[in-house]
Amino acid sequence: MVKPAVTPDTSLREDRARYRELIAAAKRLPPIRTAVVHPCDEASLLGALEASDEGLIVPILVGPEPKIRAAAEAAGRCLDGFELVAAPHSHAAAGRAAELAREGRVDALMKGSLHTDELMAAVLDPAMGLRTERRMSHVFAIDAPHYSKPLFITDAAINIYPDLETKRDIVQNAIDLARALKIDPPKVAILSAVETVTPKIPSTVDAAALCKMADRGQITGGILEGPLAFDNAVSKEAARAKGIVSPVAGDADILVAPDLEAGNMLAKQLVYLGDAGIAGLVLGARVPIMLTSRADGVLSRLASAALAQIFSHWRQRGGWQKTEEKMAVHAATELSP
Q1: Residue range of the domain that includes 260
Q2: What are the residues whose beta carbons fall under 8 Å from the beta carbon of 83, sequence distance 6 or more?
């Protein structure tokens, strides 16, 4: 067998040390009220209850009560003291959870044992009032043991083939999450297959346009560079070999994929071949949304809850509003005679 050219530094892992630091930071904040949508299997219910045990969320369990109690019994947990909101099936649970968010009774949503499309359909329903001027997008928070710091990948779960306007919101949502986590300013790599603008590869043109949009104040709070290939985004040696001089190249905090397929494959490759941990949020709605998966481990579920809690408190302190106001000022300046 051919030995790898570089031996991974496994000392960086420390049993998901970054997630543990994230959870520890979140525990210093008050828990957020969270609607847990249709937690009718053991894994999704336990994820919510464990986040409650850690002081990250106050779960409100939304769904058919008999099924939720059966899941609790199978998990060996007691639901005394937890609020249950009855809904006859998963579709109704998604709608009721969205109503709770609209009414201001919860600060976040957590996916249970229902399809993502079902939950997002309720969130996107104009009657629910959860949409903002931003396009919603998903951000993966990756604990990659062979990278020197936390890494964010977007969008790998919501927008399939985003246009330039959607990519602007995808980038801004990711920047906001990084800043909520005190990564300020985050370094944003706009990924493609090559490092030069090539009309035959539309993602390179979009990358260049996004960087110019940042120069013009249409994207704020981050340092953008692109197009960059993956190696040049995360390896300073690769960037130097290509002659790329940039504060982002080789030191990216955020990787922006050209489309959902590329982002999803990149994130899952890091998990299954790179031993990375994965957590994440949907941003751009009035509340953060945790799209937990049955394949997620306990620590990943807790990390997603910690992300939602920290981001929710950042928004309440005015972080989101300040970003929107800053972009509005730039827009008004551009339009003024």
Answers
A1: 133-284
A2: 59, 60, 61
